[in-house]
């Protein structure tokens, strides 16, 4: 029989070994709740969508600053990649953020083709991804994933709303025109769906490759077709040029040009007279009179000395969503199931109004009809209340 003292020593050694083992087991989780939270911003900072990437970045950082510069007590370390709106470079760019920089969360991007590639990398690596713009329908449809969220919209939503508005206005014929990639095809596809269901007919669907802006031959075709209305999806620098070219060709005098709000959001300064009176549909309008929007616009103006646009709102809401999830797990990204459950169930007080997510983690929100007056996209009415996407084969 061992003396009591030895037993005590063995007991003490066992306890020490157990404590060390427990520490070893606990350390991965500990490291996920300590230190800086690594956020990878993968956005366009050059090219036709550069202004959109900058506005998203500003909006995201504003929400973080309003939260004391931290998320659930953790400071933020940003890793920034210019994705150039180039889908071919997207897998490498996303992999750099995940494997080289070891980010906890990726935020991006604007271009649907780039986002489709990013979402695949995020799914393959089980990295948290928040999409603050790109609307590719499939990402929150058949390709939905527990770790992928969107705080913007899906591409077909704005077209669905405008198709209904134009059918209600008894327009009979329409031409659609856009860049040939997911965003343009899905936006014009949504328009066609509801416009034709309401008794109209899309007589021609015109396309040009992204990001080309040689619109002249297509404008000549529109003039010859003489539809009752033209629905166009363009954004950023391309939207500025299209709206100006349309007016310069004199078409705005006879054929109303309408579209998703991307056609006139963040672009009115450059479009000037050419955009006046245009109707668009979007989940945001400049003068929305709710307390959150009023505070947001004032804070954005103070921080950046410029008016915010829809892209800034989407970046702001991406950070708001991250904060909800991180608060729920007290900053411990290791608690993934609780983190994504809290994000999925979030009710966000957004400058756009209330924002919730559907099963595929895509926004449920009101879509507004807006009219350009001076430098503002003025609220006209709610075009579709609480628009939510069909499940589209999402298996979450
Ligand atoms: C997109 O590629 O999904 C997109 C780009 C700019 C504005 C809206 C959508």
Folded structure, characterized:
This protein has helices spanning 4-31, 50-66, 90-100, 112-125, 155-168, 182-197, 216-225, 236-248, 268-271, 291-304, 310-328, 336-344; strands at 37-43, 70-71, 74-82, 105-107, 128-131, 148-150, 173-179, 201-208, 229-233, 257-260, 279-282, 348-350, 353-357, 363-373, 376-387. The chain has 396 residues and is α/β, with parallel strands linked by helices. It has two domains: 37-153 and 288-361, Response regulator (Rossmann fold), CATH 3.40.50.2300; 156-282, Response regulator (Rossmann fold), CATH 3.40.50. Strands 7, 8, 9, 10, 11, 12, 13, 14 and 15 form a nine-stranded mixed sheet that branches. Strands 2-3-1-4-5-6 form a six-stranded mixed sheet, with helices on both faces. Strand 13 (353-357) and strand 14 (363-373) form a beta hairpin. The N and C termini lie far apart (60 Å). It binds benzoic acid. The site of benzoic acid has 10 residues, from loops.
